[in-house]
Design a protein that fits this description.
Two copies of one chain form a homodimer.
Chain A lengths: L4 H7 L25 H8 L3 H7 L8 H14 L5 H8 L4 E6 L5 H16 L3 E6 L3 H13 L4 E4 L6 H8 L5 E4 L9 E5 L1 H14 L4 E7 L4 H19 L4 E7 L3 H12 L8 E4 L2 H14 L9 E6 L2 H4 L7 E4 L1 H13 L9 E4 L1 E4 L20
Parallel strand pairs in A: 1-2, 1-3, 3-4, 4-5, 5-11, 6-7, 6-8, 8-9, 9-10
Antiparallel strand pairs in A: 10-12
Chain A binds a DNA duplex through helix 1, helix 3 and helix 5.
DNA sequence: TTGAATTGTGCACACGTTTGCACAATTTGG
DNA sequence: CCAAATTGTGCAAACGTGTGCACAATTCAA
């Protein structure tokens, strides 16, 4: 009945103090065998269990053996195989981080913050690119394969079918500045409503009557959200005809969107004078085109306000008045969310505050419609 | 002799067609059990081996069973556990990517390219931040724990002790635009020599006699390399006194370094007129300070050339003449290097070409020393 | 009709770790 | 001096997958 040798081995009488640690064959192969806990166990004259326990805080291990084991480990350059550990403990230090590339400057800052925040928590992000929706679904599947502790999404939204299959199950998903048709997901957003309100107020307070909102037509949740809140804030004044609002969408993204929007809009004789751009990056494009292509002075001819407060916004070339959202706060919120993910099953719903940063791109509108220079003043 | 039940079980007579697939207990626990190959095996009425083989191309599996297994897998949302697979096959799709944050704009573009290139190869980058040297060593250890296929380093250089312990062993390291005191590592660099030569030529050709090189004093390999080659190229002319070269280091990084350098240098009465900045980002800072703080006109008062060719360099605000290095080519070289990593043991040594991009920041130097305005012209 | 070649599938073990349980050795309390 | 408590360590099983080997079933050749 018993055929293979292995059985015989297993059933053999236990030897004294050595558990089966098959000598790692140092054959002629170029790629040398990895060092395992068995190797250090053999050298230290202990079992693999003991080695394992030496790396845990609360284990009952004598100071003596622990010291010896740690010493030998270091000497051998032994590093725990986290893959094996994860298999055993069913826990993972890996976190999925999916972003739509690093083209958008705010995304870059956000990802940067996330990476260093996660790193401080002892977590390691696998970074995946997801430029389109199907790509995002694929990415989620891939991350599931790595048994990640959590998935942080900073672009796009997972299709609900994928959501049903994976997210529902056991991988918590955190949507950052994203729409949340997936109510199983954790949601963290900056306060787009407050931001849009502040922007509207800033332009109105400066005396602008003809306003415009500029956005990329490929823009996702944030842009649309800001537009809607902007419109909503102005509703009272637009309904009386006191103020006009032009909503401009351009088939480009970021800087180029702003650039094109300026070319298109500022060539109209009676164009708006107060511009709210969905992002700072759009504002940069808008300003460059306004200045260098359309010969406008900012803020004398047109006023501009952005959203994000990128480092570039503070530089003298732009000196852009904008709504600041703090990537550090967003990252912190993600950290908190991940922290309490295994303890509670309730979903996070968090809004991060924003603030108005006044710089030099907003002033009162020109007296006369552009084209006819004013005589007074 | 045989004491535990387990032995009895192992030695028991094999049942008909069902191998031991302990029913995943669907207990009251919130976190539902992961779906494993055993689950789909049971539902498909096959063994786990068969399920495993259904996901491999060349396995001898009947079309019928494969179809059925794949169907059930999909239906169940089964995803291979890559950690377990890696343990078994001793191969990994994970690649370590270590960068010193995403503050430097060229690093961002490079990382972006690397991520999408790796993703196309079916590899997944674990992104680690390594701002300082010890941090880098820690990062390498961490990555070793994850059994990564390779480590790509875009900042700093691993200490040679770590190199000896890990890199030597079996994790191939790729140093990107880095110094290589580690000769076990694979080296990929852009052609700093050619770049510095082109920059020198461009300034000399425009008629400049008083040159300067601007760099951050924290700058690593690339900056130092460019400075040395710049100096070397000019050696003949500086030795005759025909041309002067001032080497400026500032205790800041990137934009701020350039900004400060301009404040310091351009306040001198007889300052240089042709500036080679180690990076475009430094050039931006330099130009902003020169224009807005020192009241200089570019290129009329001072000429500037950068290195990298960032997207921002092409925009009208800067319109910077620069040396272009192509991040895409660097990424491609990394891909090639990784591709042949298991087949050959020889190290990669690759230089990526650069080119001069002429824009609007270089012209002839002003006739008279700045300060005394020229009467003619 | 029989023996050989081919095809499809299961079994058992391996990968490197963690951990409940058992147990020997030591210390403690009475 | 003995029982009980404590301490330190080893054993074996588990995590989920891949794969060499064995073997049954089928096809093919003679």
């Amino acid at each position: 009945m018993i055929t293979t040798q292995a059985y015989a081995h297993v059933c053999a009488k236990p030897k004294k103090h050595v558990d089966k640690t098959p000598m790692t064959k140092s054959g002629p192969g170029i790629k040398t065998q990895n060092i395992t806990s068995a190797d250090v166990a053999r050298l230290a004259g202990v079992s693999r269990s003991t080695v394992s326990r030496c790396f845990k805080k609360d284990s009952r291990i004598s100071d003596n053996t622990r010291k010896r084991v740690l010493e030998i480990s270091d000497q051998l350059g032994y590093q725990v195989n986290k893959l094996a550990r994860s298999m055993s403990t069913k826990e993972s230090d890996l976190v999925g981080l999916v972003s739509s590339g690093l083209h958008d400057p705010f995304a870059v800052i956000l990802v940067d913050q996330l990476i260093s925040t996660l790193q401080k928590m002892g977590l390691h992000p696998i970074l995946l690119d997801a430029s389109n929706e199907t790509q995002l679904d694929i990415s989620i599947k891939k991350l599931a394969q790595y048994q990640v502790k959590s998935i942080v999404i900073t672009s796009g939204s997972p299709s609900s079918s994928i959501g049903a299959k994976f997210i529902n199950r056991d991988i918590p998903v955190i949507l950052l500045n994203r729409a949340g048709q997936l109510d199983q997901a954790n949601l963290i957003n900056c306060d787009n409503q407050k931001g849009a309100m502040l922007a509207a107020q800033a332009l109105i307070d400066a005396g602008h009557k003809k306003l415009a909102f500029i956005n990329s037509s490929f823009s996702t949740f944030s842009g649309v959200s800001r537009r809607d809140f902007f419109e909503q804030t102005l509703a009272l004044k637009t309904s009386t005809g006191d103020v006009t609002l032009e909503k401009i969408n351009v088939d480009e993204t970021g800087y180029e969107a702003g650039f094109k929007a300026a070319l298109k809009t500022l060539s109209q004789p009676d164009h708006p004078t107060g511009f709210f751009c969905a992002t700072d990056n759009i504002a940069f494009g808008f300003m460059d085109a306004a200045r260098y292509e359309m010969g406008k002075k900012i803020p004398d001819d047109v006023s501009v306000i952005g959203f994000d407060d990128l480092p570039l916004s503070a530089r003298p070339t732009y000196d852009l008045t904008t709504i600041k959202q703090c990537p550090n706060d967003l990252a912190k919120a993600v950290a908190e969310c991940i922290d309490k993910i295994d303890s509670t099953s309730e979903r996070t719903r968090k809004i991060i505050p924003v603030s108005l940063i006044k710089r030099k791109t907003i002033t009162a509108p020109p007296q006369e419609p552009s084209g006819k220079p004013s005589l007074k003043d």
